[in-house]
Amino acid sequence: MNVGANAKSVAVQASTSGDNTLVAAVTDKKIRVLACVLIATTAVTARFESAAGGTALTGQMPLGANGGFTLPYNPHGWFETVAGQLLNLELGGAVAVAGVLVYVEV
């Protein structure tokens, strides 16, 4: 199965302390992250979750001021939500975090 052919992307514009929905839930589908770039304007922690305030998909990742990270394209995916749950970015403070996320619904 060539999941890359069905890939979608979304711009990341998050700035709320706590929950920030990146991709809305899709009935009976998991959201599998294939690639991502995130940059923060000031220092903050970030964590991906399955559902708002839900299951942690990553640990708390410290992002430095004007810094961030890249998850290069991974055809098998870096992580995925539980079926029917949204993809959430939890921020440790009200800091602007921007980037892009590439995903598939499986």
Descriptive account of the structure:
The radius of gyration is 13 Å and the shape is globular. Helix content is 0%, strand content 53%. The protein has strands spanning 8-14, 18-23, 31-40, 44-50, 55-56, 61-63, 67-71, 79-80, 87-91, 97-105. The protein contains no helices and ten strands. With 106 residues, it is mainly β. Strands 1, 3, 7, 8 and 10 form a five-stranded antiparallel beta sheet that branches. Strands 2, 4, 5, 6 and 9 form a five-stranded antiparallel beta sheet that branches. β4 and β5 form a beta hairpin.
Summary of the model, kept short:
The protein has 106 residues and is an all-beta fold. It contains no helices and ten strands.
What are the segments in which pLDDT stays under 50 over at least 5 consecutive residues?
Answer: none
Largest sheet: 5 strands, antiparallel
Helix content: under 10%
The rounded Rg comes to 13 Å
Tell me the distance between the termini: 11 Å
Strand content: over 45%
- Arithmetic mean pLDDT: 96
Number of helices: 0
Question: Based on helices, strands and strand pairing, what is the structural class?
Answer: mainly beta
> What's the number of extended β-strand segments?
10
The run of helices and strands is: EEEEEEEEEE
Overall morphology: globular
